[in-house]
Every structure is written in C-alpha cells, then in structure tokens.
C-alpha cells in the first residue's frame, strides 16, 4: 500500500527559484501574488501562464498567444460558452439571493439533475464546491451507517475542507489523515495487465480494509471513490471493473460515495456519469467543478433513506449553494450537453485521441500506456516498458515542452508520471493532431 506526498498540488508547480528566469513583468506579478496571497497557493509551470480569455477548448494569454487547453474540466462545455454566459447574465439581472426562499428554477433543475441518475437517487442538496459536497457526503454516510471508517484510494483527492482533506491520501504528506481512514491501492490496469485482474486486486484490498475496520471496532462508514481514479493515475478500466468491491461494501453495511467531480457530466462518453460505466447505483453522488462551467455550484445527490437520518437530526443551510444564478448556470450546462450532443462527442473525440496517441507510442518507447474513457485520457511515461518503472522527471519535462508549444495539461498518479489529458468537452477533431504533433516534438526534443 502506498500513500502520497501532496503530489496532486506539487507535481507541476512553479518553484520560487524559477522566478529569476522570468521577465520583469511576470516576475513582479509572481512576487505580488506570493506577498498578497501567501505561500500555500501553487502556480503551474516554471514559466507561469497568464491567461486572460478563453473560448471552447482554447485560451489566450496576456501577450495574445493562443493555447490548446487539455486540462480544464471546470469549463466543461467550453470556456465562455455563450449559453452559460447569457443564462447567468439574465438571472443576475433579475435576482440573486440566498437559498431560504422558494424558487421554481431550483426545483426544476433538481428534477432535471436526478433524471440523469438511477431512480433510487432522489434527493439533492446544493452547495458551492466539490469539497463541500464531499464533506457533506462523509457526514451523511457516517450518520446513516453509524460507522466512522471510510475507505479511500492511495492517491485520492476529494477536496480541501478539514474533514475531506483528512480523507484525501494524496495530501498525506502535508495533512494528517483521519485515524479511522483505511487506504487501498487503486485498480492499476497497466501493471495488472487486465481490468479483470485489477478489479480482483482492488476487491481483495477493500475486503482486507473492511476486515481491519471490523476488528478495530471503528465501524464501516463506506467507500468513497472517483470511478475513473483520476488522481491515482486514471484507471477507467473495462465496464464493471469495480462492481465487486462496491458489492462487498454494501454487504458489510457500508455506503458507496461516487465522487463525480471529475468523471461526471458526460466526461467518459459512454455514460453521463462515471459510475454508470460499472453498472453501479451509489448511495451518494457528489459533483462540483463542471456543473456550472466555472460558476461555483456543486451538489450531493442521495438515496432518500440514506439522507433521512442526517436531514431529520439537524438543519442544513448553505448561503450560496444553489442560488438562482448558480442554478441558471447549471441548467445551461445540462441543456448544452444535450443540445450539442457532447456526450457522443466526448466518446468520439476520446477514441480518436487515444488511437492517435497509441500510434505515436510506436515511435516513442517511453510511452508506457495510453488509457481512459471518453475525454479522459492518461498517458503514462516510463523508464522502460519491461519494468514499467514510472518516469517522473520525463513527465514533468514533457509538460514544460508542451507548454512551450502552447499545449496545456498536467500530471497525476503517485509518481506524477501520467499526463492527465482532460480537455473541455468542446475540443474539436482538429485539436487531436495538434496534441499528437506537440507531444511528438516534445518527446523528440527530450530524446525520448
């Protein structure tokens, strides 16, 4: 079992020593940012990018340079999508207030959102961020089961509240983990070769964690997982890969929280939600970033019986969660995904991307694996294909080379050796060869 060292935040980050190489203007901006915002904030790249506008899957910096954005799922339907901009503008022109008044649009959107999910998921609580949604989910799950212990994967990142950080093993180098947390390795489809073997290993690890919880008396609350294992290295696997593990959790009285902040809202192409790829009906679903295309809105969706012990025991109030303007943004996102056929588009573009990247791997032996579903692709760089040893230094160097070629992305996985290719759903067919050419040139420049 491995644990992380805050790699999700520190992998592709600017270091103070890099400031000396910047031009006067950007060095002054960096110094001002560090002085005013403090040292905890991170920037991408040795040469940070100052983005000032975007459209679709493209963004422009302050000097007018255009970039292909292969990283941002926050503007899920595309940067500055006109439908979202118009919806927010129209509602802001009418009213925005807190959530203790009746508002029909909030209920209409709640109905629409749950209509995309299995019928058992009936009730919605709106918040502002994925961190808040996961915080609420952990509390609801504990209230329902009476257990304290959650199971999470070894590089999982579920958010930044005190409770959620303590259940995000990728932060374990900087944050104290909850004493009851059990950490398991993800289903590594690259090193286990097949989804079947990876799924079996994952189920065995979950079974061992449950047994340890039961011996300790901590009480099982459940499993919280992103079904694409995004921070762990992107292991989408074959359909149904993690179903046995979730069945084990249910058999022992725990709940399954599907963290859909990254794989949700048509990202995987095959289904609207990542968990649907595995034939699962979660007890709780959480979502965030892509829900409002950058406008802060998130939600926790739960089975009625799971939410009831929490909701009857205490009132819950989130001042801005699900306010009318946020709901307008969220409704526009749902409408756009359907109206523009973005789920089918994600499937088509993702398959084209991975096919092209696998072809590229023939010329570059340091590309160890290309994996994913829909517009969620992981490209793992290795020292050697026989040993499959991760090559962190190469991956970070490739990021810098791609940045110079105006292609933006980042890394994930325990060694930061996996390129995390997660563009807005608006990416076009013309963008795929641009990625491949930039990656080809980057690897060639690095002698890889």
UniProtKB/TrEMBL annotation:
Cross-referenced InterPro entries: Aminotrans_3, Aminotrans_3_PPA_site, PyrdxlP-dep_Trfase, PyrdxlP-dep_Trfase_major, PyrdxlP-dep_Trfase_small
Transmembrane segments: none
GO molecular function: pyridoxal phosphate binding; transaminase activity
PROSITE patterns: AA_TRANSFER_CLASS_3
A Pfam entry, by short name: Aminotran_3
Superkingdom assignment: Bacteria
Keywords: Aminotransferase, Pyridoxal phosphate, Transferase
Family, per entry: Belongs to the class-III pyridoxal-phosphate-dependent aminotransferase family.
Protein name: Aspartate aminotransferase family protein
Originating species: Microbacterium betulae
